[in-house]
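Please, structure for the following, as tokens.
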Amino acid sequence: MKSESSLVPKIKAYRLVDRGEPDFSHFALRHHVNYGAIAIILDRVSSIFTFFFALLYISTTTITNLLFHPEILLTVGIPGFIIFLCLGVYNYNPHRTLRSEILSVLLCVALEAGIWSSIIFLSEAFNSNSFFWIYYTVGISITIAWRLLVYKITDLLFAMRLLRPRRLLLLGVSNLGTTVLRSIRHQTSSWTEIVGYVGVKDGERGYDDLPMLSTLSDNLYPLLIEHKIDDIVVTLPEHQLALQEDIAHKLIDMPISVLVPRRKSQAAYPENRDITLATFRELHQSQASLSYMQLVMKRMFDIFSALVGLLLVLPLFIVLAIAIKLDSKGSVFFKQERVGSSGHIFRILKFRSMCDKAEALVDKVKTVDEHGKTIYKKPNDWRVTRVGKIIRRTSLDELPQLINVLLGDMSIVGPRPEVVRIVQDEYEDWQYRRFAVPQGITGWWQVNGRSESPCYLSTDLDIYYIENYSFALDIKIIMMTFPALLKGKGAF
């Protein structure tokens, strides 16, 4: 079993480097979590719309007939969700192609239309042979149309270099490697960048226009960090396939996916055949504390909660912005770099509660406790403004973080996102585990004392949350947040 102490420093080194460009490794998962949440919502909206459209198209009286069958009205959208889920449409696969997803959707909508046709026919709400075809045609049109739009927008973002492509390394020289090289360049040129290859020995003849970056005898860790590798595709010759397991074992502590052929024989991949990375299987995937579907469900809840929350507090936003501006000079909002899930660096938003340029004065207020740990917050900080004291006591300064939630940088519930300098200077190896889940506005630490114990000194509370995660625990923390806010315990 791998140890925490060996895992975390490598993740630290891999994630907290070169913040000058988009972090695709983080974006890949975040993008697919967002995509999964949006896909579920849009597909269910499509299902409900298609259902009633088909009924209205056949006859306006069918809606009236359905009023006598509430069991049907209450379950619209549920059969489709179960079908899409069971057939893996919402599963995480960063290498899935648009073509494969559309084929899955065609099958899912056909099954969904067939189930509803059968249910409605057996319930005798009405009888129409055209319902299935109307439902299928409209459902397919909507579900495929929005997917095409999303893929086109993503293509544009990659082409404009607003997103960094996944960086891929070929491991081994073979006919399979030639096929992979040609296929990837042909199919996903803007989404994937092939950085180079690792040879078996020095001087090995490899791929004509691809540099050999290292050999199997070298330590791969520095190479992976230097080139920010996201995926390793094993393209070893057949007589060296036994090395696959050894390679995966050596890389098990790195947040990198290792893709290998699904079959042992590489004869299954002739040079004239187009293949995609989805053809390969994942030999190793970095450990995650939350499953992909847990992350998707959590993201759906975050999007809904943030949207509702922003709408409800919009008048208060305006009042607080005016009060902050009248109370002291400086910007209404305070922005600061924080460390999010997987070490992703983002700018957190808060209402400014201190004097202008307060961060430059931090050395004048920080103290050191009896254990030699630096304390950056203390009661009666002279930098806090008059309005700042109020909004800190009531935690109203945290409201703009609902925008961070919508952007996907944060969650409603999770460990508190830490300041970058504290992570770099104060964190011990075991504490990096708190970045294994999305960071939150509220969390187990926040409802158990907040600033009375700085978050980096209360990692054990965050690890409790990570090890015991459930949606019910998220709801419990939200419910505990309100009395904690009223008490104002630890808020300064």
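Residues 1-11, 13-27 have pLDDT under 50 and may be disordered. The radius of gyration is 26 Å.
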